[in-house]
Amino acid sequence: xNLKIAVCVKSxxxxxxxxxxxLDPVSKTLIREGIxxxxxxxxxHAIELAVQLKEQYGAHISLISMGPQQAQKELRMGLAxxxxxxxxxxxxxxxxxxxxxTSYVLAKALEKAGPFDLIILGNESADGATAHVPxxxxxxxxxxxxxxxxxxxxxxxxxxxxxxxxxxxxxxxxAELPLVIGVAKDINKxxxxxxxxxxxxxxxxxxxxxxxxxxDLDKTRIGLSGSPTxxxxxxxxxFGREATELKGSPEEIASELSNIIRPILGRE
Amino acid sequence: xxxxxxxxxMLRKMVAEFAENEVRPFVKEMEEKETFPMHxxxxxxxxxxxxxxxxxxxxxxGVDWINLGIxxxxxxxxxxxxxxxxxxxxxxxxxxxQFVGTEEQKEKILKPCIRGEQVLAMSxxxxxxxxxxxxxxxxxxxxxxxxxxxxxxxxxxxxxxxxYYGIMALTDEFNPLTMEGATMFLVHKDTPRxxxxxxxxxxAWHGSATGSIYLTDCRVPKTMILGEVNKGxxxxxxxxxxxxxxxxxxxxxxxxxxxxxxxRYTKERVHIGGKTLFENFQAVRHRLVNMYTEIxxxxxxxxxxxxxxxxxxxxxxxxxxxxxxxxxxxxxxASQAVMLHGGNGLMVDNGIERYFRxxxxxxxxxxxxxxxxxxxxxxx
Lengths: 268, 380
Ligand SMILES: Cc1cc2nc3c(=O)[nH]c(=O)nc-3n(C[C@H](O)[C@H](O)[C@H](O)COP(=O)(O)OP(=O)(O)OC[C@H]3O[C@@H](n4cnc5c(N)ncnc54)[C@H](O)[C@@H]3O)c2cc1C
Prior knowledge:
- The complex is a heterodimer of chains A (268) and B (380).
- In chain A, 26% of the residues lie in helices and 26% in strands.
- By secondary structure, chain A is α/β, with parallel strands linked by helices.
- Chain A has a 9-stranded mixed beta sheet, with helices on both faces. Chain A has a two-stranded antiparallel sheet with strand order 2-5.
- Chain B has 3 domains: 6-92, Acyl-CoA dehydrogenase/oxidase, N-terminal domain (Butyryl-Coa Dehydrogenase, subunit A, domain 1, Orthogonal Bundle); 120-236, Butyryl-CoA Dehydrogenase, subunit A, domain 2 (Beta Barrel); 239-377, Butyryl-CoA Dehydrogenase, subunit A, domain 3.
- The two termini of chain B are 30 Å apart.
- Flavin-adenine dinucleotide binds at residues 121-125, 129-131, 155-157, 202, 205, 210, 361, 364-365, 367-368, 370-371, 374 of chain B.
């Protein structure tokens, strides 16, 4: 079996630095200055699954990303884990895309780089966290799709067993390829890429596509203007707790406290 | 940093991941139980860290001295002890095999070392003093096709862990001018009457076995001489830049580790008026700046040495100077990190005093810094 696998990866601000992130009040986009970008953590699990399948059956793995030119850095990093080539879809016209416009462009890129037997995405991104993209990509491409996947295996005949998390339980599906899945972090443990992978990554093909590289792109479906989601007002949630100061002698305070606690405990 | 680029940043991240996820969780147990971390050497081999300075035909990943420096720094930030063991295998004892070893020696020893399946000791030091080669008691005489070794060694790093031991023995009267008269033998652990003796208890580096070796009529085939007869110190000398510079990087890593702990602690420790130590006291901030400055000066010297290797230039003096200076920085920064932690710095469970203890090891292990001073003075 020589599979063709695509893994969609997104460059996101480093979650360890989320506390330093802020929002631009006008454009309602993230201010990323001074924040490193990394591969979206769930996508690392998607890459790991692809590499495990490659080790098991042999496969050609392509990484696909939509993002700014700088996302080439994350793609190189992704290639260090073992994939064979990478495609970055990057153009100002794609900027400001919501999850639907993103899924449309990813689907187009997957069609152009494909066809693929298996398309793996991280279940959700650390920054947007909508978890829309895996299903939307599947629907746009007309392929069966499943999300929140925590187990995946394949037999010699190309039959899959897919373990999906369902409200605290699991459902196991048998599905045929081609298939689109969104994987959760629990699916596997991501390896540390070895030095061979790191030093070999620079020699692997990385292709950048702009709008011009797509012949049949529906421009009404891309970028900010192609995004039905419009940001509303936002406010900062307060996680502080309401505090009441109890005054009086220690006995008075104790009795007051008891009056507060007893009803909570269901005692009068 | 002038030497960083995208690829090296990727490499740094990956080694840091190994150091954080696999080395750090093991340090406490290793130090307390004196466990030799062979599984970490194996992992470093699997990940290709041990092959960072060997060509692909030997199982390496291609030679880049700066890459190895970056990797060693990341591991030593977490543990200079594991750093030392990785360093021994990645360059310290194995590199001379690449330069002067035979095909047989490369197959039997070097390749398994690069894969992390074996480690190789280099044992010179004797009770008479490590630099006092002329007085070494370990001698070898030729008998047919074999050399017969008698004598003993002390302070041998990796004692009891190796398949082969590099043992320096006198094969002639030692001439301190030509440095001839001593030969390096590669002795298999199962050689009859080869014995590993007492494993020492040390101030630090409890995961690194340091012990004595006894040799009584040990017969070693002629083919197991490293380099030429009487030129054992030359075989060693061919890697002198690397030996000193990669010992020095352990110190730099140790200093960075201690500095990062101190910076984090002083920014978190809430003190007078609800402000942190860092916010409250200029004395604290300036101390941290001094530590940072020492580290960066050391980094400049040391990565300059790696660049000289990269360019194939002779930088023996610079590498030796780097070993001395890096140890000073290590000790100074680690000592100040203990200071900045107050009482917490002295409590063993917090792991801060370990940085300081390790800095003292660097002053003597891998040649005492005073001996290196003496060697440099001869080149001035
Ligand atoms: C943890 C550890 C691991 C070690 N691992 C190894 C190993 O794997 N292989 C190995 O061969 N050795 C090893 N050594 C030995 C180490 O190289 C020596 O301990 C060190 O070089 C000092 O030699 P010495 O202990 O014999 O001290 P001495 O020679 O007695 O020296 C004592 C002091 O005198 C001064 N001094 C001595 N000689 C000179 C000189 N020529 N010029 C100027 N000053 C001098 C120095 O200040 C020195 O510290 C290890 C040592 C330690 C502590």
